[in-house]
Amino acid sequence: MNPTMTSHRGPDGESRRVEYRVQGLSCPNCTREMQEEIQRLEHGQNASLLYNSGRLLIDPAVDLQQVERILKGDGAKLIQPDLSSPDETTVSANAADEGPSTQAAAETASAGEPEEEHESRLGLWLLVLSAVMYGVTFVPAIPGTVGIGLDLAAIVFSGYSTFQRGLRNLIRLKFNMDTLMTVALTGAVIIGEWKEATLVAILFGLNELLEGYGMSRARRSLSALLEAAPKESVVVQDGRESVVPIARLKVGDVVLVRAGEKIPSDGTVLEGSSAVNEAAITGESIPVTKGPGQPVFGGSVNSEGLLRIRIDKPYEDSSLAKIMQLVQEAQDKKTPTELFIDRFAKWYTPAIMVLAALVMFVPPLLFGQPWMNGVYEGLAILIVGCPCALVLSSPIALVSGMTRCARLGVLVKGGVHLEQLGKVSAIAFDKTGTLTKGQPEVQREIAYDPQRFHAVAAALESGSLHPLAAAVVRYVAARSGGDERPRPAGLVTLPGVGLSAEVDGVRCFVGSEALLAQLSLGGEAQARVAEDLAHLKAQGLTVVLAAESARVLGLFGLADELRPEAPDVVRALHRAGVARTVMLTGDHAAAAQGIAARSGVTEWHAGLLPEQKVAQIQALAGHGTVAMVGDGINDAPALAAADLGIAMGQGTDSAVETADIVLMQDHLGQLPRAIRIARRAGRIIAWNIGLSLSLKLIALLLTIPGWLTLWIAVMSDMGATIIVTLLGLTILLGKDPKAGDSPAVEVTSHN
Ligand code: ADP
Ligand code: MG
Question: What is the rounded CA–CA span in Å between residue 550 and residue 509?
């Protein structure tokens, strides 16, 4: 068995936790109860037992045997880490953020599955056997006592694990579904309702099996995603090749990746050229051609030639490892709906027990009614008390939804964000880099002092991440050849405007026309600059000017292309029910208008500083759930202010890290589909909750005329569980057309 331990920094940043995989967690409720028990162990305070991803995070000082004992109560167990390979289990202080074990986790996730499958197959056979025995009791030739024996055996076969847990809980006065079921079945046998008790036990067993199946399906499709992680790689050192486990790769190692093999970690191609499939990272299945000097992602597949690659990041820092860590953590963050259901289930079960006791004892004691009827109804009510379907209504749908989105290259960092995404009614877009390609080119240049203009512009812009800056640097470099570039000193970013720095001892500025307000130009110069500016803007160009003290050195007019998929995406968003699409930009109105018109957004606002973008988001927020899509350059505050921050995958690191959703493909193509998936998940969750609650309510109401039978009680739960599980899993279905298929650019003339 592969090691499954990793370290996680606790909430206090001090204590460390190790991670184990846990197999066979049967329901969110019991998981919570076991977590509470584990937390009561010595050093157990900050343990987390996570149902959705099937993990346990725990202080290494906790006595594992005790933990295992607790888990066993629910039929769950730890997958033991292999302590013989200390490398993997070494606890490093900053490991929590990097998630070094994601690869190991991925391996065990797949390795663990067969055993779980084996167990559920055994459970299924026992159920079939019980069903057959139950059927035989109806054969007229079978004598009564044999029939009873068969019934009893069937009850034991189909319900033994429930009884085991139920009895244990009963002794400790802990009331959950197992306790309820155990009491109900024992009661039914005592009052002589053999047949019904058997049927109930079989149906309940089936119910449990389904429950486990549903969640493990949802989890498994996630581990399929994790299987993208490569295991080892061929390192070339001093002309010799050796096979090295991924975890041992160091920055600077040179690896050989042959056709069909996976690239081990993020790196740069040194030699060779090949088509590389990056689907594991971006969801985009059309291979990208990579040659010397180009960056590659770990986890992508080299589909043709031989590549020699220099490793730039250790595996645990690679994009793939981060994605996997993220996706895994995302599953375990509870949504408000889930928290509500947890709380609800916590008092629902005891409340039902009280109700059952009332129904059992009040009529005979107060009104002299016969005991049997009351006891029977009471037992049926106990069965109604199992909140199985209810507690399942959210997690399966959420995990399925997040997994499906991840397959599209849309990383949703938590169920709550998936729920939000499904409710989005307005989306704001940044212009540069989001609606446009973010690769603007200098189209026009008006220089008043050409030499100095280029020198200053290039010097300052080389210190900026803004897409316009890159264009300016490229443009100047192409013209000035090997000229030495002066070094800027004291560089300051003017958010949403540009930059300022000292070049050769003189304070210089580069940025939008808003800079003019800060310079005191002479009347004549001012008139000339204003005229040239208007000229460039009239052509819809974005203007970048460079100035030193009170002198404008020149103007660049840049144009950025609309992303080809933007108009289709905006239209698809409107069809998906997003009423308002808004473009927010710091650029001037003339440049903004063209892009807005061609992309088809319903509104646009230009000339905004970062804080004004925030104000716009807040204004939108009055009308429903607002998402903001941006790359983090001059729009990070707006991303944070929106209900849902959506970052472009190639945006700034901080944007990608703080955003709620990341578009790994670095384009908007999959956003409408992700919204559809989220809406569907939201609808299914609401419907699931409604269904499971109303079936419970109906069952309870049936007790008034005295129509509730034991099997109706268990069927109402099982029916709901089946529907809830299947509906949740349908989210995983459906073909995902890849982004590459997005329709060609539609050119709409608008001038
Ligand atoms: P957008 O909202 O379109 O992404 P920004 O808010 O990023 O635009 O920038 C607004 C304007 O500020 C740009 O159009 C540009 O004129 C100017 N600007 C900002 N940063 C820079 C920079 N580093 N170099 C040149 N101009 C800049
Ligand atoms: Mg921007």
Answer: 10
Pick from 549, 523, 560, 587: nearest CA to 449: 549
Residue 354, SS3 per DSSP: helix
Q: Note the pLDDT of residue 455.
A: 92
H or E, element range at 199: helix 194-226
For residue 361, which of 385, 381, 337 has the smallest C-alpha distance?
381
CA-based nearest residue to 127, from 169, 84, 157: 157
Pocket test for ligand 1, best of 497, 536, 541, 639 (most atoms within 8 A of CB): 497
CA pair distance 170, 182, nearest whole angstrom: 9
Residue 57, φ and ψ in degrees, nearest 5:
-110, 125
pTM assigned to the model: 0.78
Q: Which two tokens stand for residue 445?
A: 């240049």
Rounded to whole angstroms, the Cα distance separating 713 from 708 reads 7
The two tokens of residue 306 are 């031989």
Measured from the CB, is residue 469 less than 6 Å from ligand 1? yes
Tell me the C-alpha distance between 408 and 401, whole Å: 11
Task: Give the Cα separation of 556 and 474 in Å (integer).
Answer: 13
Q: Report the chain's C-alpha Rg in angstroms.
A: 32
Structural contact between residues 151 and 189, judged by C-beta atoms closer than 8 angstroms: no
Q: What's the 548 CA to ligand 1 centre distance in angstroms?
A: 19
C-alpha 79 chain-centroid distance: 24
Q: What is the DSSP string of 533-546?
A: HHHHHHTTPEEEEE
Distance (Å, rounded) from C-alpha 85 to C-alpha 101?
13
Alpha-carbon distance of 259 to 301, in angstroms, equals 8
Angle 382-396-22 from CA coordinates, rounded to 5°: 85
Q: Which residues surround ligand 2, an ion (CB under 5 A)?
A: 430, 432, 633-634
Asked if 507 contacts 541 with a C-beta cutoff of 8 angstroms, the reply is: no
Cβ of 587 less than 6 Å from ligand 1:
yes
Work out the mean pLDDT of the chain and round it to a whole number.
83
Q: Which element (helix H / strand E) includes 334?
A: none
| Contacts of residue 601, Cβ cutoff 8 Å, sequence gap at least 6 | 429, 435, 570, 581, 582, 583
Q: Residue 735 class from Cβ within 10 Å (0-12 exposed, 13-18 middle, 19+ buried)?
A: exposed
Over range 536-547, report the average pLDDT: 92
Of the candidates 40, 46, 42, which has an alpha carbon nearest to the alpha carbon of residue 11?
46
Helical packing angle, 144-171 and 194-226, nearest 10°: 60
pLDDT above 60 (res 751): no
Rounded-to-integer distance, Cα 417 and Cα 415, Å: 5
Q: What is the DSSP letter of 176?
A: S
Indicate the SS3 state at residue 473.
Answer: helix
3-state secondary structure of 130: helix
Question: In this predicted model, what pLDDT tens digit does every residue of 340-378 receive, in sequence order?
Answer: 887 887 788 888 889 999 988 888 888 887 888 888 888
Tokens read off for 720: 């709901």
Beta bridge partners of 21: 55, 79
Gap from CA of 745 to ligand 2 centroid (Å): 22
pLDDT tens digit string along 434-486? 899 888 999 999 999 999 999 999 999 998 888 899 999 999 998 876 667 78
Q: Is the CB of 649 under 6 A from ligand 1?
A: no
List residues with catalytic annotation. Answer: 430
> Is residue 244 scored above 80 in pLDDT?
yes
- Pick the closest to residue 306 from 230, 229, 234, 232 (CA basis): 234
CB 377 within 8 A of CB 354: no
- Buried b or exposed e, range 598-608, using 16+ CB within 10 angstroms: bbbbbebbbeb
Task: Give the tokens for residue 395.
Answer: 């997690």
Measured CA to CA, the distance from residue 285 to residue 276 in angstroms comes to 9
Backbone φ/ψ region at 407: left (φ over 0), alpha (ψ -120 to 50), beta? alpha
